[in-house]
Amino acid sequence: MLIDAIGSDPHMTDNAETRRQLLDHDICVHIFTASAAMVGVCLTVIGIIRVVISLRRSDVFGDDLLAINAMLYLAACLTSYWALRTRSLGRNHRLERRADV
Predict the structure, then answer these.
(1) How much of the chain is helix, strand and coil, in % rounded to 5?
(2) In whole angstroms, what separates CA 57 from the centre of its chain?
(3) Less Cβ crowding at N or C end of the chain, within 10 Å?
């Protein structure tokens, strides 16, 4: 009975839609900040590995993998930034899904 009363109230559905849009915006912000931080972490570790490589005179495959990882995080960062800046809700959802993947 209570569910029927809440479900029939048009203000409740508007409120739910507003909360969903805010949640979607919040997810984009989290993706943007986390991916930007991970780009910085990857670049820092690449720098540390390069110092170790120059001291030991041996080559490591790990820095190449970290560079690829940094590029993927950069793509997620740019896609989530684009989703934050777009005004179209449909485009926002598509870009957000791509950034999340």
Answers:
(1) 90, 0, 10
(2) 37
(3) N
- Average pLDDT over the chain, rounded to an integer: 79
Cβ atoms of residues 80 and 99 within 8 Å: yes
Predicted local distance difference test score (pLDDT) of residue 13: 59
CA–CA separation, 41 and 34 (whole Å): 10
C-alpha–C-alpha distance, residues 36 and 64, integer Å: 19
Residue 87 CB neighbours (<10 A): 6
Q: What is the pLDDT of residues 12-59, one digit of tens each?
A: 456 767 666 666 667 888 888 999 999 999 999 999 988 888 888 777
Rounded-to-integer distance, Cα 24 and Cα 99, Å: 12
Number of H helices, E strands in the chain: 4, 0
Residue ranges of domains in the chain: 2-100
User: For residue 94, what are its two tokens?
Assistant: 């598509």
pTM of the predicted structure, to 2 decimals: 0.68
